[in-house]
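Example (one chain per record):
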Amino acid sequence: MFWLPLVVVLILRPAMFDGVQGSYATLLVVLLVVDVVSLAFDGLEAVKWMRGQRAVV
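Predicted structure:
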């Protein structure tokens, strides 16, 4: 869940995309997508853990 602040910054600060072009803009978008997917998996696993499902898969 340590990536949550980065995702918040990338979503709430679209002004940082002003003047950003090319591969750097692509990198920021890919970073955002990967972090959101990672947080989704982490969130689902955290909910399972809190409900008592602590089996190692």
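Caption: Residues 3 and 27 are 16 Å apart (CA to CA).
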